[in-house]
């Protein structure tokens, strides 16, 4: 698992929220996957002001198990998350209007 390892980090940060994919807890499986199998994926996160006005925030690699996390982001904003297959075997997966969860102390 890789947590908070950023290749680049710009844009608005500083908050009590996080985005990430974790190992399953019941039906809640948010790991990065390729063809429904957890894999290492390059994750890019952008803050969305509207559908076309977006700003890069950060990028991170998931672990081989698909687990990833971006911490310390503003929960009052919405984000676009793009997951890219490192082997270029499939197209990127995109989720828009993603709301961060609150970090636990």
Summarize the structure.
The chain is mainly beta. The chain has strands spanning 6-9, 17-21, 33-34, 37-38, 41-48, 54-61, 68-73, 78-85, 93-98, 101-102. It has a single domain (6-102), classed as Immunoglobulin-like, CATH 2.60.40.
What's the SSE blueprint?
Layout: E1 6-9, E2 17-21, E3 33-34, E4 37-38, E5 41-48, E6 54-61, E7 68-73, E8 78-85, E9 93-98, E10 101-102
Antiparallel strand pairs: 1-6, 2-7, 2-10, 3-4, 5-6, 5-8, 8-9
Structure, explained:
- The structure is a single chain.
- The chain is an all-beta fold.
- The chain has a single domain, classed as Immunoglobulin-like (Sandwich), CATH 2.60.40.
- It has strands spanning 6-9, 17-21, 33-34, 37-38, 41-48, 54-61, 68-73, 78-85, 93-98, 101-102.
- The strands form three sheets. The protein has a five-stranded antiparallel sheet with strand order 1-6-5-8-9, with no helix packed on it.
- β5 (41-48) and β6 (54-61) form a beta hairpin.
- The two termini are 20 Å apart.
- The model is unreliable at 1-7 (pLDDT under 50).
- This is Transmembrane protein.
